[in-house]
Amino acid sequence: MGRSRNSGTERVRTFIGIATALWLIAAVAAVIDRDAFMAISWSCMAVFGGLVSSGAAHRSRGIGYLAIALAVIGVAISIGIFLLD
């Protein structure tokens, strides 16, 4: 009863912020492993998470579309690598 309307949004932003940190760690690990495509994939996901968790994707339609495109590109690269291996 005492919850505000934005409490769900704040939980999602916190979750995406934690996921962004993990994606960034995965991107650094891929760079260390010299796996360029996975580094690009994880970096796309980390930038997507950064845009969403900062709220920039909610304020601007263009940045929102950019965030969606980055997520799609990151997932497409990951799926492509999975299918090729």
List keywords for this structure.
85 residues, mainly alpha, 4 helices
Account of the 3D structure:
This protein has 85 residues and is mostly helical. It contains four helices and no strands. The model has no long low-confidence stretch (mean pLDDT 88).
Short description:
The protein has 85 residues and is an all-alpha fold. The chain has four helices and no strands.
SSE blueprint and pairings:
Blueprint: H1 7-32, H2 36-54, H3 56-59, H4 61-84
Mean residue pLDDT: 88
How far do the termini sit from each other?
A: 51 Å
Q: Which regions have little confidence, pLDDT < 50, spanning 5+ residues?
A: none
Total strand count, please?
0
Q: Name the helix and strand elements from N-terminus to C-terminus, one letter apiece.
A: HHHH
Estimate the global geometry from the Cα principal axes: elongated
**Secondary-structure content class:** mainly alpha
User: Radius of gyration from the CA trace?
Assistant: 15 Å
The major pleated sheet works out as:
none
